[in-house]
Please model this.
Amino acid sequence: MRLITSLIFGIIALSFTSAQLSKKQLQDKWFVEGQARMNGYSKTKLLDTGGKRVILAIGDGMSLTTVTTARILQGQQKGKTGEEEQLSWEKFPFTGLSKTYNVDYQVPDSAGTATAFLCGVKTDAGIIGLDENSVRGDCAASKGTEVGSILKLAKQAGLSVGIVVTARITHATPSSSYAHCPERNWEGSVPSLAEQQGCIDIAQQFINFQKEHGGISVALGGGRRNFIPNTQNDVEYPNTKGRRVDGKDLIQEWKNLQLQNSAYVWNLSDFNAIDPKKTDHLFGLFEPSHMQYESARNKGPSGEPSISEMTRKAIQILERNPKGYFLLIESGRIDHGHHEGSAYKALTEAVALAQAVETADKLTNENETLIIVTSDHGHTMSMSGYPKRGNPIFGLTGALGNYGKPSLTLNYANGPGAWKDGDPRPNLTGVDTAHPKFLQQAITKLNSETHDGTDVAIYARGPFSHLYVGVVEQNYIFHPMAKALCLDPSKAGQQTCSNSAHGVNVSILALLTTLMAIVLQFI
Model:
């Protein structure tokens, strides 16, 4: 009797549920797409065994607003309305949010944030590879505050490591993977007092890492000026000289290391000539400072590769190591475009990063490679004004303000696009607001637009990607990466991994961690 009653109520409930949704609604494309997405997610496998490879892609300054508007731009570049588009990482199964503040700043800088996600500990603004007990600009106070990065751990475990950036290789994010410095701006030299106290500039630390740890297998980006003396002309720009005051030519020093199957390149022609099957070490510096914006990139023989091309070459070289690799990718010029108040530059850089991540996704096996895409911090750009569906993302909203002047969809809270105090807001009627040199309007006049302090997104796929969920502190990003590479020093982390080669290194690391804890009790 009880069974019959349950069946009757079940039939009634099913009939009631079905009656609420019409056939038209069930066939609506949005409804169908929602069902398909849910069914797809329900089949997502949790990959909870250690992989061999980790790729961390950073969109410097890539706020959630930047992601949204880059998505629309990419779609509109394909002739779509744009809103329905998906960037490559938006197809990943797991997402979370990262809290970006530094230990001492509510709105962070890129040095403290990079140290957080690369080393697993939060620190102060301006600090490279040191914990919060260091003091910015104080060499003596930085002694003993060094923290290790995921890149260094991977190298010590026998994996290959690589860096692909569009900023200078000595800039905040990449340098946090191999250097320790109390001042992010000591890229090519240090003050005399700091030098006397034993501090070394970041470019020199890059070369030292090559000597002491067997080197970064692939390092591609900008920043030649920090590797050559101030008496030497740049190879590409004869009227530009280096910035080193110690007379050292670190590029030549790198060549003199005579690393196995190594090559140094500075232009697109030489880069394209590199055979990844015959190359173990590749060092490329394509500009004196940062690389060119993608929208203005010289694609000729004397030009430079795209971030996607650099990513492809890096993976092809790194994957030759059967033990695996760690690759850091950074689109540093998203941040620079925002600082200039140029949504055009920032968003075209973000779209270029999406293409690089798509390249990485296609070249790697999801079962063996963890890919994480995130940002170090956001920017003050906003998207507002009720523009209609498909409205050009760099365009006007169509609505007029109180003074009969149109407004932009994209604006900044501060930056160079603000008008002078006392002047009326410029009338943008007839202005080409999609021009690469156009600056979005801003409220507060500043020479350089600032970061913002809002959370940024984390997107992940591959081994242990399911651990990137929820709202987490930015330093948390390090820990699933270490787990995925079998570099987690905890006992549980060791038990997860079956790779004996990694296990030995992890055991040593765990022992050192325990010994350090004992020593600290007596200090």
Remarks:
- Residues 379 and 451 are 4 Å apart (CA to CA).
- The domain at 53-380+450-487 is CATH 3.40.720.10 (Alkaline Phosphatase, subunit A).
- The longest strand covers residues 160-168.
